[in-house]
Amino acid sequence: xxxxxxxxxxxxxxxxxxxxxxxxxxxxxxxxxxxxxxxxxxxxxxxxxxxxxxxxxxxxxxxxxxxxxxxxxxxxxxxxxxxxxxxxxxxxxxxxxxxxxxxxxxxxxxxxxxxxxxxxxxxxxxxxxxxxxxxxxxxxxxxxxxxxxxxxxxxxxxxxxxxxxxxxxxxxxxxxxxxxxxxxxxxxxxxxxxxxxxxxxxxxxxxxxxxxxxxxxxxxxxxxxxxxxxxxxxxxxxxxxxxxxxxxxxxxxxxxxxxxxxxxxxxxxxxxxxxxxxxxxxxxxxxxxxxxxxxxxxxxxxx
Length: 303
Hints:
Elements: H1 12-27, E1 40-45, H2 51-62, E2 66-70, H3 83-93, E3 96-100, H4 104-113, E4 118-122, H5 128-142, E5 149-153, H6 158-170, E6 173-177, H7 186-198, E7 202-206, E8 217-220, H8 232-239, H9 246-252, E9 256-259, H10 271-274, H11 281-300
Parallel strand pairs: 1-2, 1-3, 3-4, 5-6, 5-8, 6-7, 8-9
């Protein structure tokens, strides 16, 4: 593994190894205290962040590494100077680049132009760090994930794509329930269906809430993306039937509720569900650090 840009490039063995390594780092942090000793990581952020920035910064410190954070005050990527120049210059000093960007093409160019590992901390197409943390949380609660059932309800987006790829690689059955016109990217769907078939998994897409069926976990995301100026009343009118509530959880038999945060109680999920014992949102949030540390150790340790 040279970079970590998307879960789709991982084999089943590689994904399971990352999950197992994350478990070990979480259980025995002192054993990895010097895993990144002498290593420096530059974080490039085009978008605001809470969980991503804090979990990477503290996580790298726990591994004995050093972080340099760069936001848009240093000039927008590709505008002040070409993305390729960012990558080649940073590669002169740093051991890795973590990039939270608007376009996947930006993180792909950083990886192709630079000479150090690049980690995709979020782009318009994928959120692989979140996905890895989510499958770590599911594995901690459900054990072997093959044939387990995960539902994503709401707006098809970058998180959905990463969950779809991960579920397909692991041989899970994933249901994506979205309003018409809000489904995941069509090319991703076709790609995921092929991967799922190869691994004994299944992908189901539907707009009918009645077709949700039995699930082990239900996952949703905000209907109000960062920078989205759509009127809230219009959003609620379209997505209202897809709110995750006690009725949906009960009918599906789902043991766990998941959300990548930030969440809007009373909008995409009710307070009764997100604050219930079935909610594992804080486990997901904590696991961002452990999952990302597993990626960093895999890419950088002893190199």
